[in-house]
Structures are given as structure tokens and as C-alpha cells.
Amino acid sequence: MSEQKVNQQWGGRFSESTDAFVQAFTASVQFDQRMYKEDIAGSKAHAEMLHRQNILSKEDFDLIIKGLNEVQAAIEAGTFEWSVALEDVHMNIESALTGKIGISGKRLHTGRSRNDQVATDIRLWLRNTLDLIDAELKRLQLGILDLAAREYDTIMPGFTHLQVAQPITFGHHLMAWFEMIKRDRSRFADCRARMNYSPLGAAALAGTTYPIDRHISAELLGFDAPTENSLDSVSDRDFAIEFASSASIMMMHLSRFSEELVLWSTPAFDFIDLPDRFCTGSSIMPQKKNPDVPELVRGKSGRVFGHLMGLLTLMKSQPLAYNKDNQEDKEPIFDIADTVLGSVRAFADMVPAIIAKKENMYLRTKLGFSTATDLADYLVRKGMPFRDAHEVVGKAVKLGVDTARDLSEMSLDELRGFSDLIDADVFECLTLEGSVNARNHFGGTAPNQVKAAIERAKAVI
Ligand code: ARG
């Protein structure tokens, strides 16, 4: 990047050029050049609006479009020379435009300020990113559905307090993940909808004296409408905070999935196998196969939560309207976007490739007295109050613990020793299959309910 002595964009009232360190310190071009496409699209829409309103001549407008196309081509070809002295993406592009087309380039900034320009660019960039995130989240949902459809009747222990609680199906567990992602997508969609208004024309803060039509540029850029208030347009970054907050909640979900994958793939659980291509080995321990992808995603949630706090703190106490503080919104937004896109992509690739170790899942479900509630429910159906049934089954479980046997492995006589309401039909509800099949209602774990949930999910995805 080249340096430059007197700033050509606003040098008029200055008698000395900016301190070299201050120039570099206040510049944002190192990171905001990521928004070059949005900046050029915004400029084109602004120029078209100016032209349609007879503020900009046809010749100037045509030259501006042609020049902007050339600038974009140079950026994309890697031949564009970014300059720190020109501070940010906006002034770099405008200066290059003027270098190409001369005086017409200087007319582009009529009725506009970098304040509404940057507020427009970042919204456009985020809107596009939200669409990319949504597509990846949808791909993850499809991966979850794929695995859930394969494992809809695979029995595994359901946990509370990470202690075996009741038998569930693996498909049911996966569909819980699906629901979380469904809400994450809707949170991002809300964020997009609230953000999709055009700040262009707000200018520095108060609007402009030219006869602009903000509806034209808003429509050209695919915004729902222009923003209502010029001060609000250039000053608030609540959409960035909302994005960070939706992203944090989503990463919190991914970190929970990660934790489960890490646990399930340890030999201590041995519920799943993660394909080798998502794991790494150890340089010292030859036997190791580490679940790096879920571990890293779990870890990456931290930086997203941190950015949420950073953005909240950035905006807290800022007086209206624009302040240079706002330049600090971009790096967190970009980092959140990269982190979220990478994490979701890794999950979307990995989840459908998970291999369930059905026998181990089944065995672990049997070892945990997971049908104890079913036995209590059985006694209730035979007329015993639930609290008494709880007590009776607790005693049976104690015998099971003492003699290392599941309830289903006790004889009818032994079980009848706890209550004479127990008959031979008890064994139907003590089996794992009987237990899951009995939870046969909307939202329950019975395999046919899981199947129905998968069908409903396919319809709404
Ligand atoms: N680089 C600035 C930002 O990211 C652009 C707006 C600067 N406006 C100003 N009045 N200094 O916020």
C-alpha cells in the first residue's frame, strides 16, 4: 500500500498532513476492502438515483458506471493498489474512479457522505452473508435429516444430568438438533428483515439539500424501503449486535452438539464413529483419533460470544449520530461471519457421515435401568398411585444395582416380591423397544413419531 502526504479527499481546511502513525491507526482499508463489491453497487445505485433526479448528467452517469466497472475489474484482477493514505474502501474506490474518468468521478459524492455510504455497504455485505449462512444451515439441517432417517429407530440412552434417564431413539435426539437449527435460521431471518432498509441519502446525518429520491436507490439495492430517520440511519449498529447475538446462540448450539460428538466418540462412550477425514491423530500416542472438528467448533463459540460483548460495548453510550467508533464494527462482523460459515460448513459435511454404533448404544441403554419409569407407569395403570409406584420401583432398582441385573432380567416372582400388581405382561414395558414405542404422541420418541417429525421437517425446511 502506498502513502500520500496531503489528503486529497478532505485536505481543504488542514494546514498539515496527518501524522503518519495516525493515518495508519485510523485507516480501515486493510479490512473494509472486503466490502468493495457492496461499495461499488451502492455507488452505482446512488449515481443512478442522482441521474434520474436530474442531479447528475447522462454523460457523468455513464462515465461513473463505466469507471466503477473498471475499478471492480482491477480489484478482482488483483491489480488495484490500495492506499492507507486514502483511509478506507470508500475513498480508495472514489479516488481510483476519479483517476480513471476525471471530473465526473468527483460528482459521485454529491448528496452523500461516507457515513450513509458505510452504513449501506455493511448492511449489503451482511445481508449477503446472512444468505450464505442460511444456505449452510439448511445444508446442515438436510444432513441431520439424512442421519435421523437412517437412525429413526436406533435405541440409545436419553440422559438427564448426563445419567442414563430413559430410552430414546437416536433419530429423536438428532431431531432435537434440527429444531435448534430451525430456530437459529429464523433468528437470522428476523435479523435480515429488520436490517433490510436503505440508509442512503441520510448523508452525514441530516439528509441533503439536493432533490434526491431515497426510494429509488433503496429499490435498486433490493432494500425493502429507505430508513425513516437520517440520524438513526448513520448511527446505529444494532443490526450488527443482532447478528452477533443470533450467531452466538447458534454457536452455543453447535458447541453443545460438539460436546456430544466428543463424548460419544470417546472409547468410554463408544456410541459413534466420526469418519477419519474429520479427525486427526496424535504425534506421540499412536492409538489416538481425536475429534478435532467438533472440539474446534466448540472452542470457536468463544470468540463469537466475545464479539457480541465487544459490539454491545462499542455502541453503549455513543451519542448520535455517527462516531468514528463505528468503524470498529467491521472486524467483529467479518470474524463472526467467517467463524459461523466455517463451523456450519464443517458440521454440514460431517453430520451425515456420522456412524452410529447401534449395539453399544443399545447395551448402554440396558445397563442404566432406563425402563424404571416404564415400570412405575405400569403400576399406575394397574391402580397404584404414582408416588407409591416410584417407591416400589426404587426398591427393585436397588436389587438390580446390588445384583448387577437390569429390571428385565429379574424373574416374575422376584418382581412380584415388590408388588403383586405385577403380572407376566410387565416384560413388554421393560424392554427398550416397548419403552420407546409407548411414547407415541406428537413430539415423542416412538420411532413412528420420529418418522412423522422427519416428514414435517422436510416440509418446512
Ligand atoms: N471508515 C469509516 C467507517 O468504517 C467510514 C466512515 C467515515 N466517516 C467519517 N466521517 N469519518 O466507519
Provide the low-confidence segments as ranges. none
The end-to-end distance, rounded to whole angstroms, is: 46 Å
The CATH superfamily title of the largest domain: Fumarase/aspartase (Central domain)
Q: Determine Rg (CA atoms, Å).
A: 31 Å
Q: Find the count of extended strands (DSSP E, 2+ residues).
A: 6
Percent of sequence in beta strands? under 5%
General description of the model:
With 461 residues, this protein is mainly alpha-helical. Helix content is 61%, strand content 5%. The chain starts with 19 loop residues before the first helix and ends with a helix. It binds arginine (ARG). The site of arginine has 10 residues, from helix 7. Residues 12-306 form the Fumarate lyase N-terminal domain.
List the helices and strands and how they pair.
Blueprint: H1 20-26, H2 29-32, H3 36-52, H4 58-77, H5 89-101, H6 103-106, H7 114-150, E1 155-160, E2 163-169, H8 170-195, E3 197-198, H9 214-220, E4 225-226, H10 230-235, H11 238-265, E5 272-273, H12 292-315, H13 330-350, E6 355-356, H14 358-367, H15 372-381, H16 386-403, H17 412-416, H18 426-430, H19 432-438, H20 447-460
Give short descriptive properties of this protein.
461 residues; mainly alpha; Fumarase C, Chain A, domain 2; Ribonucleotide Reductase Protein R1, domain 1; two-stranded antiparallel sheet; two-stranded parallel sheet; binds arginine; Argininosuccinate lyase; arginine biosynthesis; EC 4.3.2.1
Q: How would you briefly describe this protein structure?
A:
With 461 residues, the protein is mainly α.
